[in-house]
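Two proteins follow. First one:
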Amino acid sequence: MTLLKRRTFLTLAGVAASASLVGTGNAEASVVARPDGNGLLIDLTLCIGCRGCEAACAEANGLPAPVDDPNIDKIRRTTSEVQRVVVNHNDTSKGEVFARQQCMHCVDPACTSACLTKALYKTPEGPVIWRESKCMGCRFCMVACPFDVPKFEFHSAVPRIEKCEMCFARQQKGQKPACVESCPAEAVIVGKRSELLEIARQRIYGTPGKYVSHIYGEREAGGTSVLYISPVPFSELGFRTGLDETPYPENQRNFLTAVPVVLTLWPAFLMALRSSTQSRVVVPPESETGADEEV
């Protein structure tokens, strides 16, 4: 059996190195540009639980009016197929705190990455919208969303995906989202994400003890366009904590980048390695003694 020649080894090493570089290059090229679009800042110290945002959202989007019973707020933790915004009542370590929930409009959304037809789309302006004409009803977005937001109208003859769109159509006309306009306490404001983060920091550090030192949405799931500040830890409000700070689609892209390397370059590398290390046997004509010689 011949030994692996130095030249062959260097060639194979070069193939392996090229494979790793191909994977790295694709991963870097796939990083999504993240423009500073519009977002919402929700100050939970100001929310009075009036649920005016629920009513305004329903009216603006042609949805049923919210149920009047305030006790339902205690059990609603996500939106539904008939409501894009919900306000929950929470008993916390600092007493009663109201917290509204809706689509977080992730900076790099998992739902848009999972959508095979691009029916869910992250607009350059900031909102994540749903485009009915492109949707095939696969509901992968529901599985992908780390915040459990998109909801499917199972009981409808013509089902839709329901989620907050941050009143994108209204913003296109220069109007504020309906929930922002309707909030009497100004608990929710709209603006560029970078500006909202600065406002949030000013409120947190400008009034020590009023807020926990955490802007929810600044880093969760890679960052979201909907941001929260709160007087209590978000775990007391039923928010999902401990989420990965890397955008969920980024992990998916890194995995998919490795697939072509594994399926194409790596098998070729192994075959070349085998060919270079296997024994080379030559069978010459039989000798006078009838014995074969191994070269």
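Second one, unrelated to the first:
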Amino acid sequence: MKARRQRLTLRTALALFVGALALVAAGCGGDEGGASTELEGLGGSIEEIQANAKEEGQVNLVIWSGYADKSWANTFTQNTGCKVNTKDGATSDDMIDLISSGQYDGLSASGNASVRLMERGDVAPVNTDLLSNYADVTEGIKNQSYNSRDGQPYGAPHGRGPNLLVFRTDEVPEGTDSWAPLWDGTYSGKSSVYDDSIFIADAAVYLKATQPDLGIENPYQLNEEQFQAAVDLLKKLAPTVGEWWADYAKQIQSITNKDVVIGTTWPFQVNTLTADKQPVKAIKPTEGTTGWSDTWMIYSKAANPNCMYLWMDYIMSPEAQAKVAEYFGEAPVNLKACDLTANKNHCADFHANDEAWWEDVYYWTTPTEDCGGEGGTCKTQEDWVAAWTEIRG
């Protein structure tokens, strides 16, 4: 009997040890990195998530305007039972403040917000095994510095697009192909510039092309000399700016009224102005430009994690991607959407599958002291914000 009890004790200990290892492995979420993807209340399978979502009944989102339009949000609600409630963010700083309030389940974060959110722990890593459409996302968008950490994905890619130079062709030569008319003040009092510290990177992109001796490689990771050159350029620009915009609707109205004839903009405004038959043209100038590759991220203490997971998965589906891409004016990240767009040339027009075109589009990210992990000493986000406050006076 004693020998039998010893065998049972050893067997029990081994079972407990194996069980503990299994729990640790489950906590890691089965993804590429080691961060835990477990969230309180989140189902452990797609089927459980779908069932739990029906009980939650809603998802609360912080979004860039237009990112959860009813034309695709209503379909999501019909499919899942999750009502979509949204709050627009005007800037990335605004969106960080909103998500950190704890009132929302997730947000559509650009790179100059996503890095900070990951570092702060405001957003959680995701288990991509529970996102059925993730496998179809183009590889060039996955595991980037702005949507992953230590090889662990932190969200669902939404789309990508460039910040464009827009101008009225009845006021500015149609053959314009450079940022120069904006930066040299040719249209003083009639220009429109994005009102956020991230615009310092736009100055750096222009300097990268026009002052190569500065040695700028990454417009978001700038040493003292490079940063000061960008700030000086912006201080020279500031008196000529007619409008500092954060409200896209106000910029549209300003261009329509001819209060503004040239500026930096998003494709969304261009789509709206073109639909209204305004004489505008938008280009990626020869010097290159900044841009975005946005990511849907889940709040680390989301009240409705199951609905949020279903939203992240849905937004990567071909059907949603086709609508999202055309509505906002961007390239889908799921190329299966290209067969579903109303404009069959949309993906070609927006270079969805042309990686070479994106080589001089620098996606928004967060300035860091370690120069994005590349070594050296660069100006931080705090430095950028302080300089922007001074530039804006």
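SUMMARY FIELD: DSSP finds 14 helices and 15 strands in the chain. Confidence is low (pLDDT under 50) at residues 1-33.
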